[in-house]
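From the shared-data thread, chain only:
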Amino acid sequence: MLEDVERILFHEQTILSRLDELARDITEVYRGQELTVIAVLNGSLIFAADLLRRIPLPLKLDCLGVASYHGGTESTGVVTFDQVSIPDIAGRHVLVIDDILDSGRTLHAICARLRSEAQPASLRICVLLRKRVVRAQAMEADFVGFDIDGEFVIGYGLDYQERYRNLPFVGVLKREVFEGSLASAPDKE
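Structure, as tokens:
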């Protein structure tokens, strides 16, 4: 897998140090309240686990399976929820944790659905990475690990075709890896 990495953006120790800072900020915002965390699967799994161990507050954890990339390197624009029902968060303070804020479509769809169907007391967003790009949906995160350019990144939970999630760092995937697989994919009509 390492031969597919163009360069490392954030080493493991840099990520963990930033998680300490994020945890302090989140703890301060939610001090005195019970927190409900909704981790967006599968990308946020590693990030959420490492972050939540640093937050010394009572909290509940739930997960939400959502997809918008469907194996490619760009959002398809179609957000698919893997489960029919959403967690019971009515009247609760909710923090949605996701791996990356890119087009904004996924987080916009999640927040819209949570607000309309579950009516939380508050709803905030925490992401490991925020791309400096024009978003298809107006969306901002309340807590951000790192800002990055528009490159395709992998590692620390982020994937390409379900691979590379277990890398302990965030790196840029070599273009020839995903361009080669796109070129060899059969045309779909």
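The mean pLDDT is 88.
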